[in-house]
Records
---
Amino acid sequence: MKNCLMIPRVLIPREGFEKWAVIACDQFTSDRDYWKRVERAVGNSPSALNYILPEAFLGENDEERIAAARERMYADLEDGVLEKLNRGFILTERTTPSGTRRGIVACIDLEEYSFERGEKTPIRSSEEVVKERLPARVALRRAVPLEFPHALVFYRDKKNKVGRYLANEDLEELYDFELMEGGGRLKGFYLPDDLSEDVSELMHTRGISFAVADGNHSVAAAKRFWEELKPTLSAEQLDFHPARFMLVELVNLYDESIVFRPIYRIVQNTDAEALMRLLQRELKGKWEGNIVHLAGKGPVPVERCDALIERFVKEHGGTIDYIHGEEELFRLAAEAHTVGVMPRPLEKDDFFDYLDGGVNLPKKCFSIGEAREKRYYFEGREISYD
């Protein structure tokens, strides 16, 4: 059984945690006001906001934003904004309305990961990766010396072996603070080398050990950059170069706080009546105004629906977006020329089975919790020797 993890030296900010931590860039993609509030809250303070490309603004001045992120990272390193911890994992506790989610911040080995269909690797993507969405992320990773990722990766631990192993350990607390914009509370505890090694062994299983849950495109971009970099490296560098690895938060699929929620589809600026007639003719479900409640479990109904709306938009016009949370879906669906689609959530026990044999779920097939419960950027590491 291959060891797919690496124990990193993690970077965290020395102070100002509340302004440093911001939500994953792929959230609130249709709500620019959210990101403008975050910008106002951060002001001129050091923040992970300065390192990322929020998807709400993707395609607008990307090159300038990437150059600014690079400059800010080097400045923050020079100014001592960041503290490098000793080698070790970090145990996180994220408290939200869904409960307290416990995770382990560690590095996955990108050599053991694939997002390509049919490839059987110990670390798998869970969703179809839209390759057209990778270039901006690869360009950012190519340009900067640090990563502050938002990816969540599942492991299977139905008996909670990791949690029981750590339950009686007296761990050093690194941070404990409230996240902005109703994100809940985040705590972090340092796991020294020996504990990290033991935890790593407990997480590995036969077959697929790890599956990317959130941040599939970010992990795929890291893999793309690593494949791009490999031909320029010596044999020794291939084994140890920091870009071979990616920092993620590992979460037990069976953690009680993990709640699978569907990701809703919203089709805007289209012929809503014609689209609704098509969906009623081709799909099973309930119809509530211009919102479709899909019937059937698993990825197949989602895949069929996506194919229909993508074909319709190509022929008749419109835009498709992916929404986390019923409140935002109903708000947007109330607009004219708009249709919303609500799939059913996945079942936990089926999750790894769906991926067996190198299969991916349809893109945006599931979500972990509501939008504000998504991972916030906080911990980072170096990915360059510069």
---
Amino acid sequence: MNETLPTPTVDAPPAAAAPAAHPLIARLLACTGGVEVRPADTEAFEAADGDAVLFFGGDPVRFPEALDVAVVLPELLAAAGRRMRVGVVPRDAEDAVARRYAVQRWPSLVLLRDGGYLGTLSGMQDWDVFVEALRTLLARTPGRRPAATIAIHAADAAACH
């Protein structure tokens, strides 16, 4: 007698949860009315009218000055005298979005206006330097964003010979 045994079903493993935002990043979102910007959201965020800033913080353990930038960003925007939309790129989406703007250093702030690119500020700066750099970028005419970066990996030396 040939009995067909039912095929057991295997539940897919649960999807890994995205790492929770650091409390200071969550505070930045809350106090600025900011939004998370993932790769699927990037074009819409960039194209919206007005001034905007994208915050790339990275891992706060590896890049502790990211938390400093997150704390001073609201005051920095106030000092620049501008109302700006704030987007925070979550850590699990940073590499994809960073390539779009050629961001290569964390933390970084990418400034945008009306669908155009104004520039990038990287790292934590002294207050006066930071405010002046922000004002300089905000005085620019929006242009095209830089060419996307492409990751280049060195080949295994043994595979080359």
